[in-house]
Structure formats: C-alpha cells, structure tokens
User: Fold these one by one.
Assistant:
Number 1:
Amino acid sequence: MNSRFVPGAATEVQRLPQAPTAAVVTASYAPDFERCRLLCETMDRQLSGVARHYILVEHRDVALFRQLENARRIVVDERDLLPRWLHVLDDPLSLFRRRVWLSLKTQPLRGWHVQQLRRIAIAAHAAEDVLIFCDSDVAFLRPFDASAFWRDGKVRLFRRDGVLANDGHDEHRIWSRNAGAALGIDASKVSAQDYISTLIAWRRETVTAMCGRIEKLHGRDWVAVLGSARRFSECMIYGRYVDEVLEGAGHFHGSEEFCRVHWTGEALSDDDFRRFVAGMAPEQVAIGMQSFIGTDIGRIRRLIDLD
C-alpha cells in the first residue's frame, strides 16, 4: 500500500456516525508473540464493540502471527503499510541481535520507532471509524465495551494536563517539541500536555488528515519527516494535532487510564502481581506488564486463570 496521503488537513471534522465502527490496533514482534497471544485471548473474552483487530508486524514475523488470526483478527505486513525505500536488516553494530531500518530519507530506526510508524500508517489501510491502540503486553481482566471511547459524535482523546511542566519528563518534552515541528506549530508554543498511554483511541480520518498536513508542510513523505527526527512519539503528534491544529474538533478529553501498566522496575512475584491487580482503579479494565521487565508470561497466565 502506498504510504502517501492527499495533502492538506481537514478544515471541518464530521461527527461520528451514531454507531461508529471500531478496530483495535496492536503493533508487535516475534519476542512478544506469547504476550500477544494472551492479549488476543483476553480480548476475545472481555472486549466488546469492536469490528476488527489488526496486528501489525514486520514481514518476517507474519507467518508466526498468522496463528492468531480469526474471523475478526488480521495480521498486517508492514510492507503493506510503509514505503518500500525503508529497508530492514540485522544490525551488525549489535552483533546482529537487533534489527535496524535504514533509508536515505531517515535516520537509522529501531523497532520501537517503526512500530509507531505502523500505528499511524494503518489509518490508510483500515475502514473503521475509530482506531483503539493496545500494546501486545496488555491483558484484559474485566469486561469492557469500546463505546467508552466515543460520545456525542466525538472520540475520547487521552490527555494528562500539565505533566510536562514537571521535573523528570525530559524525553517527553523532546517528543512534544518534535511533534510541534512536524506539524508546523510555532516553536514558541510549548505544550505541557501528555498524550502517551496504552488503550487509547484516535479518529481514523483525523490521522489521515494529520499525515496530509505533515506532507504538505514539508514537501515529502510523512514517514521521512518523522524518521528524520528519530526522537518522536506518535501519541504526542496526534495529540498536539488535535488540540493545537484542529482546536479539539471531533474529540473530548479524558485523563483516566483504562489500563494499569507496570512500566519499570523488577519482575513481579506472585504476591506483587496480586497486589498490582488489586490496586486497579474502578475504571481500569486491563493490565500491562512491560515485556522488557521480564515478568514471566506463564505466571501471568496462571494468576489470571488462563492456564
């Protein structure tokens, strides 16, 4: 699929249909396959109100993830989403343990960069009105209806106000600044809002308009624009586009996180895990165990009664 979009941002954001269609989007890779399998099983058990689940992976991982496909779950090859000039290979600088994406139009990119690009690019591939982003190391523990993401023709934009004005968010501030540069927002307009979380929603038509604006402003593919900065966050780009370019049109804000995530620290023991789950807020329906922390997937399965 061609990754280019028609230039120009939407001047008017239409209301969502009374019953919009929704899809869950998960970017993953082979080392997270078993975690993604757990996500799929818990989604199928607990999640309602979605028409499709797209799993976005590198070409060499497609065959592995095809095992997870069903009537509403589709594995999407990144080659159908991203430009062919972006080439992936084993990185000799990491003794071939890691992958690197190279081109003459971007800086060298790692997998976490490209996963973000896939999440943006799926908007040109999907047909649903609302895209719900969920990481592959998430598991749903409680029933959840996706209609929580829309009301009165608008989509819920996750936003935590003023967070970047506090200490300890240096990298987030860089991502926000680079988002502003990509979108053509005056550099003097510094945003203090944080838009980063998992289990959040975007309007598909807004994503395509956002990409069109980036291409029109910079005169090149949006992938090349973002990849040349390298330090970027897709959530920051979308959030600043909605709030500062569209002035919030088509969206309402929510700061509650539907997923409780164990972001950093040590792998959890059984007791630690039980305490973590017990600490879920009433609105939280899922947990996220960052895969690099190393909490055993078998333990998670056992403790949520899926073994």
Number 2:
Amino acid sequence: MTKNEARDIALAGFNHIAGDTELISALLYQAGADAAALREMAARPEFLVFVLDFLMESDERLLGFTAAEGLAPQRVQMARGVLGGFDSF
C-alpha cells in the first residue's frame, strides 16, 4: 500500500465519521476538542493516524466504515501501519 492510498483511506474514514452525528461527537469527545479545534488538528499529519485509530477502536466503527467503503478491514490496519510514526492525540 502506498502512502497516498493510506491517506485516501484515512480521509475517507474522516468523511465517514463527519457524516455521522454520533461518530463525530465521539471523535470530538475523544480528542477533547470542539469543531474549531478539530479543524486545526486536521491540518496536522498525525490527525490521519488519529482517525484510523479511532475507527479501529471499535469493531462496530471499523466494520461500518469498511462496509460503506467496500474495503476489507485489514486495509485500514495496513493504512495505519503506512501512516504510523506519530503518536495519537
């Protein structure tokens, strides 16, 4: 998997989260941020790792995302490995 493919998966993950009121609320809570702070965080490279970690924390989240995107769940884990090297928030 290339870094671009991994980024695309993470961005799709964020779009999936942003489109679901419960998920975005949970992400904001976990990040300890409001919408304005989330926009600032999204500009940082480690944000994509945070998104993937958030999705992988819960089988329900992960499987909901991968089903919606037509991805194998392992692809999310692979993307996390490619984008790794940053600590989560």
Number 3:
Amino acid sequence: MLTNLWHHISAAPHRSLFLAGALQGIFTLIWWVYDLAGRYAIFGASTAWSIAPTWAHAFLMIYCFFPFFIFGFLFTTYPNWMNGKKIAKHVYMTTCILMIAGVALFYTGLFHEKWISITGVTAILVGFINAFRSLQNILIQAKDQDRRHAAVTSTALLMGCMGVAAYILWLLTDSLFFLDFSRQAGIWFFLMPILLAVSHRMIPFFSSRVLDNYVVFKPYWILWFMLTCTIMHGLLQLAGMTQYLWMADLPLAICALFLSIRWGLLRSFQISLLAVLHIAFAWLSISMLLFGLQSIIFMQSNASTWHLGMAPLHALAIGYFASMVLGMASRVTIGHSGRPLVLDHFTWQLFIGFQAAAVVRILPELVPPVSQFAPVLYLIAGLIWLTCFSLWAIRYIPVFWRPRIDGKPG
C-alpha cells in the first residue's frame, strides 16, 4: 500500500511538489487567519510568535507556497522546452523533501525558538539550490533550442536563492537591509520574472490550441521591456525611492493591458481552462496601475492621508500570482493525469472565489469609507482563500497519489 502510494506520488515532479504546495496553501492560511483573528480581537487571543507575523507571512507565501508549484511546473516543462532529458526522480524528490522539512521546521520555530525556524529556512535554501542546479544543467546542455524563457526563469531562481539566504541573514542579525532585500527580491526578482516568462510563453500557446483562427503573438521585445520595468521597480523599492516607481509601473501596466487584449482576453471565456489564465494575467495590469497610482500619490503633499496601503501588492500576489498558479496547476494536473483538458464547473467556481478574495482584500484600502471595516474584511478575504483553496486541494490531491487514468507512466 505505502509502496504503491510512494510510487505514484514520486512518478512525476508535479505530483509530490503540487501535493506539498496544496497542503502548504491550506496550512499557511490557517496560521494567518488565526493570527489575524487574535491580533484584531475578533476571536481568540493575540499570540506571541518567535518571528514577527507579518514577515513570517511574507516568507511563507513568497518562498514556501509559490515555489512548490513553480518547481513542480519547471521540473516538468524544462525538459520539453529544452528538448532535454527528464529530471531524475532523486533530484525533484530531494528538493521536495528538503522544502517540506524546512517548512515544518519553520512553523515549529514560530511556536517555540527562532533557531528552529532558521534551521528550516536553511533546509529550504538547500532545496532551492538543488532545483536551480538541476534546471540550470538542462539549460546549459540544451543545443539549438530557444533558451530565452528558460534563461529568465533560471536567473530568477538564482535570485530566489539569494532571497532565502537574505532571510536567514535577517534572522541571524536583525538587519532590516536583509529583510527588505529578501522581500523585494522574492517579489520582483524571483516570482515576477518567472510568471512573466511563463505567461509570455504559455498563454499564447494554449490559446492557439483551442481558439479558432488564433494568431500567436509573443514578441520578445515586450517581454524584455516588462522584465526591465520589473527589475527597475525592485531596485527603486530597495533604494527607498517609492515616489518614482510610477516610471516603471505605469509602462508595465500598459504592456500587460496590451497583451491581455492582444492575446484575446474576451475570446478566452469560450474555454474556462484557458480563461483562468487570461483572467489571472489581467490582474497584472490592474496591480501595476495601482502601484503606479500609489507612487504618484507618494509624490503629493497629502500622501499620508491616502496611499492605497497594501492593495497593489495583494492585487499582484492574490490576483496575478495565486490565480495564475491555481490555473496552471489545474491544467498540469488535469493534462498529466490522462484526463480530457476540460475545467469542471466546480473548479471554475473556486477560481471565481479566488478573485473575490482578491477584491475583498484590497477593497478597504481602495475605498476609504470601507476602511473602518478593514480588520473584518482582511479576515474574510483570508477565509475565502482558505475555503476555496481547501476545496481545490480536496478535489485535486487524490489525483497525485493515483495512477494516470490512461495507463501511461508519469
């Protein structure tokens, strides 16, 4: 029984890593909802953690949730992109086990001693490095292949390694520089470049497979320009020059909006499995517009009275990052289980619920009169995420420990 279970879970990279990511998506929101409820005295009591909860939450989302799905996806797609050998089982399972152990130790340290969390983050870093090296080897060995998207994602993975290392240094030294670098690198040098590269490569491709008379449009100049804007945003954040972020954010928002239209956002609603990717990408233009508007407000004398708070970041993190991960993970899980590439109505409803979580989270900071209800709305947004993601996990997790229905390996 256990042997068969292990065989199926380890049969392909996405199985173990998506499984762990699904569970982590539940655990981290349970912990966060519990903390919010106690902090705002909605129910329960405020808990003293070994690490400030805001920065623990940021690390858990940036480096302990999204990477499970990113590694599961890249371990699967890199050999296809590069026409190379499949990733060896011991490689992706090593990354998965190290990250699971690291996350477990991080949670344990939150309740007990910080050094336990430091040990956990170190294990996560080793898992990151293992993933980066194996994917980088495929990139180096690839010949006569288009390596541009893979080069972007590999560089971003290296920055992710640096971001995790910086978090360890912050835990050891309490230097805010390392904390700030870890946060900004994780968002702007790690997650954004990877999701931009994946979006640029996969959304037009998937669209061309199901939409009639679809013309693939993915010029590289716009990808390089958007990546430049992303890096510029991160550097300006690190330099504390938030009033100039609009110079990077507004052009990025315009490019994202242009691509949404050009890629056929409205046409994508014909196929729900495709629409989830287009809707997720549409959040990129919305979030960057909010970032740009926030930057312009910072330049004004009355910036202290209204500055959008964390709304731009959560529009990006929940709207674009999380929604894209949910859409891609659903597609990979369905396709690599031998099932027809069709998104069932239940999963579609869960995805719409995810969009509601994003709206509820950013509403108090976009509509000042609603701000008085902010704590409750923050908690509601967390509960919506937790509910939708838990139901998604219940729906898809059994697929990871069962054989493909078409009898094929993997």
